[in-house]
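Most newcomers find our protein records easier to grasp once they have seen one. A learned vocabulary of local backbone shapes supplies the integers on the structure line. An example says more than a description, so a record of this kind follows:
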Amino acid sequence: MTTTRPATRAPAADAPVARVLPLLGVPHLDREFDYLVPESLTRQALPGTRVRVRFAGRLVDGFVIARSEESEHRGELAWLERVVSPEAVLTPALFGLVESVARRWMGMRSDVIRLAVPPRHAAAEKSVPGPLEPLGVTTGPVELPEGWDDHPMVTRFLEAATSGIPARAVWTAPPGRDWATALASLADSVRRRGLQVLLIVPDQRDVDRLTEACRAAVGGGAAGRDLVADLSAGVGPSARYRRWLRATRGHARIVVGTRSAVFAPLPELGLIVLHDDGDDSFVEPRAPYPHTREVAVQRSLLDETPLMFSSVDRTPEVAEYVRSGWAHEVRPRTGLIRELAPRVIAVTDADPIQARDVAGGRTRLPAVALTMAREAIDVDAPVLVQVPRKGYIPTLLCGSCRAPSRCRQCNGPIRAGRMDEVYGPVDLACGWCGAPETGFRCVACGSRALRAGVVGAGRTAEELGRMFPGVRVRTSRGGETLDSVPAAPAIIVSTPGAEPVAEGGYGAALLLDSWALLGRPDLRAVQKALRLWIGAAGLVRPAEEGGRVFLSADSESPVSQALVRWAPQAWAERELADRAEVGFPPAVHMIAVDGPATALSEFLDGFRLIDRVEVLGPVDLPEGEELPGQEQIEDPERLLLRIPPADLPVVVTEVRAFVVGRSGRRSSEPVRVRLDPIHIG
């Protein structure tokens, strides 16, 4: 190996070659390159550190992956220009996770690193004490965490987790139970055994709530500030990096954060908890678009770290983990749900007035709902009114039973090219495969009638103010959310997910305009509706204390019965079976390839595994989807690949090879690939 270097620069005496991954952002250059380490930087240029190197004549950022005595490259090697920071932030375990995520989601490691490692702030590095010596795991019997007396199985899970066994558990929070307090108690129990805990939640509101609960669980005051760190973009880049360093150096023992926190390289990690995996916030909007739930699963497999999924509902993906035996459910004692759940009343055909009022659209508050609200206010309890957000895209429903219309070939959503005032929807075609629909018949009831789906309702605060004079009406929505409300007569109008907690629980909850949620052209529309309903209904007092819930949905539908019986687990199992029957995720995987028609044609012409997948489309890119560089494309399209789980590894390798090949040829047309997108079409 020969080099050209100034006389003042000499290679390091020990391991002079650094293997560096430059952060170039180009798929065909997503690989390591060898550089010479000057003797002056040898103690700082350690594996995992940030460096600056010269590539194609310009200085770029990179990470040292390894050091070696010699290089396999036979030509001249460039010098490592600078060590940005001696902090080894890209640990071997984190780099392994980065590679796993990039491989599965067909992306670049440089993109995943940007998601996993926060930007550096020199002042933060100086203000945080050095790495803490390992505390060591405490042995002996595990005590039942405070507040978990009605979940005796949690002791077995904690015993396995603190013994180094990669246990995986699923916990569904009972109605009325403060999930934040329960998870904080669980985390504190693991912390007292000498281990760190990573808690991941969807948004800043949940971060604040869970952080407060964790600090109270560890004793509050200075102990709470020292032992608990929250990682989220809302605290600012400098503070976030400082807290990230405190966690990765072992000082913070309980770490609470949003989706990027799943990558945090904690040295003594004993448990990962991911709460509310059905929230869309867990889908990374930047390439390679990984889902935090699946990243947590990848990390649990690679590092053999115990993992718990918690939520108020159950997604089919988590139901599959339970069904396969990969994870085990932490069940409550028999009868607990019945004791804590409110009474739920849904629209029923047995009551003609109720069914006509809601289904006919003559009023959004039928008599039974108004009665519930008045009775709750009479006992000085607040009332929660949940209304869907505006702006949902209309879809087509069966004109008789309102089931979403589905394609006979691929089970995709049927869409109307135009709406006629007299004849209704015309020019029908599938939104996935593009097949025309000339003879629609509902698979649920056999009806041939179609109607436009219900669009999100408007604000109802003024209407309720007129109905309940003298009662305070408040709203909680978007950026104007309420955290809590007192135990006093009031009506709280909230959009889904923004419901405040009521002291002592709500006396009643009215879940209105259900079809605005159920009628969305989305594979997960029913799943999301149940999650939002059960989240709101869980804030209501138990039935024994007068708590009641009104649901404006057909009482005979499976999703309504799941809420009435408070059985989200049973619904998820049924939904999993239904999706397996028609070929929907998670029973199969789907890859969406978005781009101009010429690029999709090129992809199909060169795709060598066509016999292992089912190709759907191409069709127009769904409304609301944005493609990078879309302004340069007149008519972007989408191609869907339906893939059996066993064939996923070879298919993603082939698709990524296509992306890398286009990058190497410097193709100017933008193409995006995503694995299991939340919105299929």
